[in-house]
Each structure stands twice: as structure tokens, then as C-alpha cells.
Amino acid sequence: MLITLCFLMCLPAIGQRKKQAEKFPMYYVVDENGDTTFVDSLDPVWCFPKGTRLKKGDWRKQYKMVYNFNKVYPYAIAGRKMMRQVDSVIAADVTKRSQRNAYTHDVMIELFTIFAGDIKKMSISQGVMLMRLVDRECGIPPFEIIKQYRSSFSANFWQLIARMFGQNLKKRYDPQGEDAKLEELVGIWNKGHWDSFYYAVFFDHPTKTVIKRDYLQSTVASREDKRKRKEEEANLMRQGLKEAKEMLKED
């Protein structure tokens, strides 16, 4: 009775092993020389690339920084290219201060048209990172860019908006200090290792940021309406201030 009971208790396990054997049978092949080779099936195995491992730690712990960098750095690169285009046009075609003001105003309106929709979708941390990277790529902080190409009034206005979010447009990029991690990510990008590095962090391919265009269509016009330009710029400032207040209320 005891032996029978033990046998009955083992039946489920025997049946399970039999089903597994039927699912993954081992069989053999006899070749022309009479040698027998046993063949079995193995479960599939996922293999991931090693990727880039930096000396100062595991980047998976800072995945948010990697994700944000992947999204915003292409905008900084596009900004550098556009800034060079603006400098080239001013050097070649601008002879009067009024022409410079009219041209940079048109550039500002065009930049809003190209990038406003994308930038509005960014988080505050992504916007802050973009400012740091713009400083790195262009060589001057955002405050000085606005002051140089527009006016001190415009620069101080946007500095006020930044201050409302606890940021500072005058702060310089520090590759050896506070921005050392960003500098490491830039180095990986420039070496062409970004895709494998991103995959090693997320086990997924990076989503590519699509820039509508990285060149400007604005030119130096012969005649401009100063009143209209100032009115448009004032409307942009009012809209920016309104949206900033709304975002602060939501937070």
C-alpha cells in the first residue's frame, strides 16, 4: 500500500516530465559511418551588446539625464548652426543698425515658428539642460545671445522669466565642475557611440529627435515697419509671460 501511494504521488511529476520530453524531444542522427549524434533543443537566449561603460559609474542610475540629453542635444546643435548662419549674414549684408534689428527680429520670429511647439512640450529639467548645452555649443550663455542679437531689454525680460523657474540665463557652462556629466555625454555623442551607449542603458534604441530644419530662411530686407516689429515682439513677450505664470500655477 505504501509503495502504491508513493507511485500515485509521483504520477503528476512523471506526466509533466513526459510532456516536457514531448515538447522538447531529444533525438539522434546516424551518419554514413555509423556514428550516432544526439540532438536536443535549447531555449532561446537574448544577447545584449556591452555598450559603453564609463569609469565613473553606472549610467543606468542616471537614466533621466541620458533620456533628456538624447532629446535636447540635437536642438543645441541646430542652434549652433543657425547662429553661425546669422553671423555670416550680418557680416555680409548688414550695413546699418536698423537693418540688423530688422533681420534679428525676423530671425527671432522664425525661431519661435520652428521650435516653439517642441520646446513647450519639454519638461523644466529638459529646458534647463538645453540652456546649458546652448552655452556649450555657441560659446556664450543664453543671456548674452539675446543681448547681442536683440537688446538688453529683451535679455533682461527673458532672464526674469527664467528666474521665475529658479534658473539663470547668465550662468556659464562648466565642463570641469557642475556640467562634467553633460560633457561626458557630449563626448560619447561626438565619438559616434551614442546608439550603443543608449541601448546599454535602456535595452532599447534611442528615439531620434527630428528637427524641422536647421537653417534660417530670413534675409536682410530693404524696408521694415518698426512699429509692427515692436508690436510683434511685445506680443511674444506678453505670451511668454502669460504661459510662464500659467505653468507656475499648475505646479
Question: Notable features of this structure?
Answer:
251 residues; mainly alpha; elongated; two-stranded antiparallel ribbon; 2 strands
Q: Can you give the helix content as a percent range? A: 55-70%
Largest sheet report: 2 strands, antiparallel
- Termini distance? 74 Å
* Domain module tally: 1
Rg over C-alpha atoms, rounded to the nearest angstrom: 31 Å
**DSSP strand tally:** 2
Catalogue the unreliable spans: 1-21
Mean pLDDT: 80
Strand and helix order: HEEHHHHHHHH
**Relative strand content:** under 5%
Number of helices: 9
The outline comes out as: elongated
List the helices and strands and how they pair.
Blueprint: H1 2-23, E1 27-30, E2 36-39, H2 63-93, H3 97-120, H4 124-138, H5 142-149, H6 152-164, H7 180-190, H8 194-202, H9 226-250
Antiparallel strand pairs: 1-2
Helix pairs in contact: 2-4, 3-9, 5-6, 6-9
Please give a structural write-up:
The chain is mainly alpha-helical and 251 residues long. The protein has one domain (59-250). It is 63% helix and 3% strand. The chain has helices at 2-23, 63-93, 97-120, 124-138, 142-149, 152-164, 180-190, 194-202, 226-250, and strands spanning 27-30, 36-39. It has a two-stranded antiparallel ribbon. Strand 1 (27-30) and strand 2 form a beta hairpin. The radius of gyration is 31 Å and the shape is elongated.
